[in-house]
Specification:
Layout (H helix, E strand, L loop, with lengths): L1 H4 L14 H7 L11 H7 L3 H10 L15 H7 L3 H7 L5 H5 L9 H6 L11 H18 L16 H8 L1 H32 L19 H28 L11 H29 L17 H23 L15
Length: 342
């Protein structure tokens, strides 16, 4: 890359106006009117190292704009969701003038962030994560640009908030339907677990004596049973409350940035904890009925975990990516990959 940058002629501007025809033949400034420059290609593909090196070698490249929409490097980085490039440009001496620039349709940097991105990063799966990513990116750009850009209108008279609402209305509808169906299903199962564990807490293995004390009190397996029933009841009740909170929320784009994903992740965590502890309580209660000749030689209770493990295996990628995106300080960049069109 360093060797190639020494040989490009895009930025070999001449002070002599009579050399204009020669520049046209050698690929000078006129070439930037027909195709993207090296800096703009590196920007839209998230090649941060290339962007930094080009600006070091050719500082004048900071004024490059796309054709025909006339978007500068900041507008292009925001439109392509290249977080690292956008973040690196914040330290540039011309940051304020670059951030306040507009394209040919008078779209500023916030309006670039409000347009829907159709090709998401490969870690983003499903409408909910896409809605979260879009809302997180819009808020991230909004926090790092001048405040007056939020009320600026483009050529069609639309503000960034109006463009965001229009562009994401279908995605918001899909996300609300998914999160409503998912939370409703988990809430029903959590309510069933609450009922089962509540009834189980009054069913003591081995019975009680005349004073109501369990005969197996002090036995390790009995203590495990009592503790797991308590954990299952409390965690299932907590997960039920979390899913009900998700169902009763406004489900607006701003809610997808932090509150809704955190509630959903918290509800899923407590739900799985309630299921696991319920299985442990079942195994502990059933342990007393197992023949003493085989209960120390085999582990039949491992079969109970197979359905749970299969379901968990399918849900871990969504859960992990949703939690990581929610707790991240900045949205992840969008990388195109190997298919870089020059």
């Amino acid at each position: 890359m360093k060797e190639l940058l020494q040989r490009i002629c895009e930025y070999d501007y001449s002070q002599d106006d009579s050399l204009g025809d020669k520049q046209n033949q050698q690929g000078g400034a006129s070439k930037k009117d027909t195709k993207s420059t090296t800096l703009l290609v590196a920007t839209q593909n998230g090649l941060t190292e290339g962007v930094k090196r080009i600006l070091e070698v050719y500082p004048v490249a900071i004024y490059d704009k796309t054709n025909p929409k006339k978007r500068n490097i900041v507008l292009l980085a925001v439109r392509k969701r290249q977080t690292h490039v956008f973040k690196s440009l914040m330290n540039h001496p011309l940051w304020h003038s670059l951030a306040e620039a507009v394209d040919i349709n008078r779209n500023n940097v916030l309006q670039m962030a409000s347009f829907l991105l159709h090709h998401m990063p490969r870690q983003i799966h499903g409408s909910v994560m896409q809605m979260q990513y879009e809302a997180l990116w819009f808020n991230y750009v909004k926090e790092n640009v001048p405040a007056h850009l939020g009320s600026q209108e483009n050529k069609d008279g639309d503000t960034p908030d109006e463009i965001f609402a229009e562009q994401h209305k279908d995605l918001l509808k899909q996300s609300n339907e998914w999160i409503k169906d998912t939370s409703g299903s988990y809430a029903i199962v959590a309510a069933l677990i609450v009922s089962v564990t509540y009834a189980t807490s009054y069913t003591v293995p081995g019975g009680t004596d005349d004073n109501g004390r369990p005969h197996l009190r002090g036995h390790l397996t009995f203590d495990i049973f009592v503790f797991s029933v308590l954990v299952s009841f409390c965690s299932s009740l907590t997960s039920l409350a979390a899913f009900l909170a998700v169902l009763s929320s406004r489900k607006q784009p701003v809610d997808y940035v932090r509150s809704l994903p955190l509630r959903l992740c918290f509800g899923l965590t407590t739900f799985y904890l309630s299921v696991v502890s319920m299985l442990v309580s079942f195994c502990a209660a059933h342990f007393f009925e197992l023949d003493h000749r085989i209960k120390h030689k085999i582990s039949p209770y491992a079969l109970v975990l197979i359905p749970l493990c299969l379901h968990t295996y399918e849900q871990i990628p969504l859960y992990w990516n949703l939690l990581r995106t929610t707790l991240a300080k900045e949205p992840r960049p969008r990388y195109v990959g190997d298919n870089v069109t020059m």
